[in-house]
Structure formats: C-alpha cells, structure tokens
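Section 3.1 - Work completed
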Amino acid sequence: MTDRAKIANVRSIVQQKLSKGERRAAKQRQEMVPVSRKHSNGPHQLRVAPDSVSLADRHTAELANMEEARLFTDRELELLGVVHPRLKNRAMVDAMRQLRTKLYTLNPTENFSVMVCSVVPEGGGSFVATNLAATIAFDKAKTSLLVDANLNGTLMPRLLKLIGRENALGVTDYLESPSVGVENIVSPSGIPRMRCVPLGHQPENSAEHFTSARYRQMMIDIKTRYDNRYVVVDGPALSSSTDARILSDLCDYTVLVVPYGKVTPGTLDSLVDEIDERKLAGIVINDQPS
C-alpha cells in the first residue's frame, strides 16, 4: 500500500464498565480475574486465576511490555504506510479520523472493540486496521491495542521486527498455555500509546482457537483492563475465511474494507449479509482514485 492510497466513503450503517473503582477492587482480589461481562451494568463473573502465574509475575511482565523498545520516526511511519499527526497527506489522515469519529459516535461513553477485515484477500484490511489503531492513539487521553488475527497479515510482523520484538509472544501462545497471561502478549508497537498483540508462534487451527472460551476471556480482559483502551482486531478476508465471521461475533463492531473496482455490488451484498447488521459499523472503500 502506498502513501497515495485513498480511503473514502465511510458509511455509518447502524446507530448502535467496568468503572475504575470496580476494576481496582477486582485487581486487589489477587486470586480472582474477570472472565465475562454482561451487557447491562450487572456484576462480573469471576474465576480463580491460574496458580502458575502470580500477581507479581503478571505485574513484572506488564511493566516490561509497556516499555517502548523504540519509537518510529515520522519518515519511517510514512515508508511503512502508517499515518501520524504530521503526515502531509491530509486526505489520508482526515479519512482515518472520520472512521474513528464514526466509531466513537456509536459508543460515545465507553471504549469498544472493532474487527476490521477486507471482503477479499489483499484488499487492504490490515492497512486500515493498523491505521485506525494509530489514529486512535493520536489522542493523548486514549490508547489503542491492535490484535493480529490475520494469518496473511504482514504489517504488524514488519513493525515488530523493526523494533526487535519479532519473537514476542502472541494470541496463540496465550491460548495454548495457561501459564501465559495477557500481560505477556501485549507488546510495544513503535507508535506512542499504541500497543499490539501479535498472532503468536502456533497459528494453526485458528478457527478452533477463536471459538474457545479462553479467547473470549482474552478479548474481555484486554478491553476492560483500561477504560481508555480501544481494541482493533485485524481480521482475515471475509470471503476466504470463516475466522472473520467468528471474530466479528466476538467484537462490538465490524468494519469492512472494499478494494475499489475489485468487488461487484452483488458479491458485496452477499458478504455484508453474513455480518450481524447490529455490529456492522461501516464500509471503507480503499484505493479509490482521486
């Protein structure tokens, strides 16, 4: 994807906490961690945390992963195709801010999770997901977390390799090992206030992973740990993977990316019908000519 890539025509389709005190109290109960949350303001269900991961171990791992290995320069971000506040391509920045604002409008009082995926392979889903997370992090009062759930994604692995985090633990490591906590898989991204969770070292059987109770718990934990954290999931292409439908169900919202001129209206309609209309937040047309 080049700097000339254009994102436009963001269309809102549907108008759709833990409080700090509750979360602080939950953390003080060292033997308990949250596993689910009701849509209402009702109580959270809790379960005993694995004995193999002590509170001290979790705290140490979290502090280590919060440290920035290094930050990318503006020029490096531009070469990678990632937006930043000083980018000269204002059309790109404005388009991503418009998408961010549309999502904020759907849920103005709480953070959210959103799955971003292209409707066809190589349609720009990872590009949009990464730039949405980067744009959320423009705001110094907010943080973003980009979760890699795309076997064919290449942008996050490039980011992590450039900052020396290519061997970082990720989603599948967490799902395969009870001794790995969420704090072990959240890594710096090289972008201020943006964190990422790589796919991990065991990506096989991803559909089985994504349907597991532990993956659901992970999504709840990474969203509720900080009330200013917005979770963006980079999902696989909708037309070629059942994982995209599974991930959409697990997120609050879904954004579909359509490469300009590569999808017929009939195909798009049939793919859109596969997503719960209550979750479908918008459609992004990618690479539209000026």
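Second construct:
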Amino acid sequence: MQINASFKGFPGHHAPVDLAHMGDQNWHILKGHLPFPLAVIKASAIAHNLKWMQDFCSSRKLDIAPHGKTTMSPELYKMQIDAGAWGISFATVFQAGLGIRNHVKRIIIANQVFQASDLEALSHLLETHSDVSVFFLVDSLAQLKQIESWRASSSSQQAFSVLIELGIDGKRTGCRDHATAMQLAREIKATNGLLLAGIECYEGALATCHHEHDQAAVAALMQRVQNLALACEKEDLFQCSEVLITAGGSAIFDLVAAHLQPQLSRPARGILRSGCYLTHDHVEYRKMLRCVGERLKLAETLKPALEVISSVQSCPEPGLALLSMGKRDVSYDMDLPVPIWQAALGDSAVSSVPAHWEIKALNDQHAYLHFNPQSPASEHPAVGRIIGSGISHPCTTFDKWRWMPIINDDYVVTSGISIHF
C-alpha cells in the first residue's frame, strides 16, 4: 500500500512511499522529516507487548483473538497472528471484511449481527472465502427472528456459527439470566442455518481496580458462563466439534483468564479478546495494568507504545503554550493526553518534561499546555519545541489516523502501518 500527501502526517512535498519501503527513507522524527502532529508507534514496546501477552496466554493454556477494532490495521493483525494469536475479533461485519481481505482466517464478531445487509455481506464473505471461520453473538429471540426473516428472502444457504452472549444488568448487550439464555440455546438448535458454537461475555464494565470487588464480580459472571456451558452440553445443544468460551477486555483480563476453561466433556477452547494490550497507553490502561501486576505479583507488565507528537506553535501569555494537536489527532474520551518528553528540532534524543507541565484542554487543532510561569525560564516551553505526549485509550487515537510510522527508540522511522476506519 502506498502512503502519500493525502495522508495526515506524510510530508506534503514527498513522492508516495510504499509501506514496505517506509524504513528506507531515513526519516528521523526529531529532525523534522515528517510534519506534526504525528502519531507514532514504538517498535520495542510493540515487540515486548506481543511477547508478554502471548506468554500470559500460553502459560494458562488459553488463546487470544485480540480485538481488531482497536487498530483497524492489517499490518498489526499480521504481527499478532505471527506472534501466535488464534484469530482476530471485530465489532461489525464491515470490520470483519477488512480482516478477511487481509488473510485473517478465524474471526469473532463480538456483537450482534441481525441486519439483512450485514447478513447478506457476511454470507457472501464466507461463500467466497471457504477457509475462513466466523462466529457472531446472539442474545435474543428477536434477533433470531430477524435472521430467519432475512433467510426467507435470501438465496443464501450459508450456515452461521454463533455464540450466546451473557450480559450484565444495566450494561451492554447479552442475556440477563440463565433461563433466557437456555431458551435461546434451544431455539438456536431448532433454527435452520444456525449452529451454536459457544458462550461469550464481556467483563470490562465491571473493572474498578479495587481487587476484592473486581475478583468477586468477575467470578460471578464467569460462574454464569460455566453454568450455561454445562447446561447446554447436558441438553446436547452445541453443534460444533469444539466449544468456544470467550471473554476479556483490556483492563481485568487476568481475572477472566482464571475461569476460561469450563469443565466440559467435549473439547473447549478459552479465548481472550483483549485488544488495547498491543500499544497499551500512558493513563487508563497503564493504571489498570498496575492492578494486574499487583494481583499477579509481576515486576513488569505492558509498555506504552503509542505517542502523539506535536510542536509548540504559540506562547501567547504567561503559563500557557498552544500545541499543534487537538481533538482531530489524539484521544480525549477517557483522559487528556499527557506530555512525556520534549526536544529541540535536530536533537539526537528526547528529555523529560517538567512535572508542572499539564495539558488541560483540547480544541479541534490545539492543545492547551499549562505550566508554572514562576518556574525557571529553562522550564518554559518555547515556540518550535517538539513535545511528545502519551495517550489514554488507544482505540480513539487510532481512528484519527490513516497511517502511523513505526519508530525505533531513537525516533527513526523503521516501517509503517495502514489504518482503515
């Protein structure tokens, strides 16, 4: 794939560059070879996170199908699969199509599929890619009726493998009680063209970082999964050679992992779906992974890999500097970005920022960096200064970019990824 001047963050005067040759350009971020703002991924942190998570899963005899909606990047999917991922998860048929077109062979659509256009599209994808397996969620008889209505008007004979979703009161989708889930399982068995392949839940809404609360809440949810799986097996409702049991956001996946191997007589596969582990972040998930580290007594967990780089464009009054990034460039739905390093154009390395620097607001194209005007002048930002910021919640930084360079620890571009939101 070629990246060109129509992509934000690519030098407007430069000829198009194929992603495969991005590392041949000898671009150095600190020398200003690429325009700011710019979102970058640190190669060393990505490599660490890939290995860390794969080791975490392997040591527990679990698989991972990381959520591809986080990045929507085929190049990152390949890295994850090459590192041992069982498959990739998505939230929509559109997203799954990106995975299928880029050689992902096993897909979990961790969401309800029910619209006629989506069912038709999924049927077409499966018919034209016979080596691909897709599983999607069901949580109601009303959804089954939507599927049956589509099938009655469609010429497709494609069978769909589905997972029953268990939900939490007041939270997202999913069956709220055992009786409803069992009624749904029986109806799936009786519905032509649907095959019950497992059970799904999402525990992320329970996360508080208070160990006792989180452990008890996750244990109760996963006990519901166990009970449903056993009841479905007892009534011979599964229509698959291997039952999939899947859960796992990016906050308290360690608690889910302890419960993802139900005691069934038939083969079962436990699958985590954590997606944000790959790039991690500097605020929300960093806080959550500290809690994971405390529970598992680990000295090291995941490393932040995603940064957004901007420059100081104005210092209009004491204590305020405006940076050249804003809501169009960086996530702000959970927390504002945090300045983590600074450099002058042409520096060979970055240095830390003073503790009193804080980004307090964002506009579409500006970040408001506040600092102590009474501090030494050497601690004041200056126009032209390069500022690297950490982010909170990678999902909503990725969706603001169409590509990102991958850099080494010296901020030299070594490769790149494409992004397809």
